[in-house]
Amino acid sequence: AGEGKFNATGPLPCARSKGQPMGQCTFGVARAGGGTATVVVTHPDGRKRFIFFEKGKAVGADLSQADGNMTFSATKEADLYRIQAGDERYEMPEAVVFGG
């Protein structure tokens, strides 16, 4: 994913800060199979966020102290992941991770 080689690309809902309505970001996903994938989300201002999946579970993001809030959480409802990375929010269909 870091090399910009993706299995799929497209739009997904995102928000940069708390209380901000969801907008659109673009994503690229590099899949390794079995639900392991790296999703690179690009915000409208060009900043990128890497989100990591293992066995179909969102396990982390490339948060740093520069982001301020370094908490990460993810839930899954039906086939939709809801991801919180610091103050950022993402909604991602399961098909992004698994293909299909």
Number of helices: 1
* Mean pLDDT rating: 93
Distance between the termini: 19 Å
**What share of the residues does DSSP label as strand, in percent?**
over 45%
Counting DSSP E segments of at least 2 residues, the number of strands comes to 8
**Helicity, as a percent range:** under 10%
> Could you name the ranges where pLDDT drops below 50 across 5 or more consecutive residues?
none
Instruction: Describe the largest sheet.
Output: 8 strands, antiparallel
The SSE string, one letter per element, is EEEEEEEEH
| Radius of gyration over all CA atoms, rounded | 12 Å
**Taking strands numbered 1, 2, ... along the chain, how are they ordered across the largest sheet?**
5-4-3-2-1-8-7-6
Structural class: mainly beta
Shape: globular
In short:
This protein has 100 residues and is mainly β. The protein is 5% helix and 56% strand.
Give the topology, please.
Layout: E1 8-15, E2 23-33, E3 36-42, E4 48-54, E5 57-61, E6 72-77, E7 80-85, E8 88-93, H1 94-98
Antiparallel strand pairs: 1-2, 1-8, 2-3, 3-4, 4-5, 6-7, 7-8
What does this molecule look like?
It is a single chain. With 100 residues, this protein is mainly beta. Helices cover 5% and strands 56% of the residues. The chain is built from 1 helix and 8 strands; from the N terminus they run E-E-E-E-E-E-E-E-H. The protein has an 8-stranded antiparallel β-sheet. A hairpin with a 5-residue loop joins strand 3 and strand 4. The chain is globular and about 30 Å long. It starts with 7 loop residues before the first strand and ends with a helix. The mean pLDDT is 93.
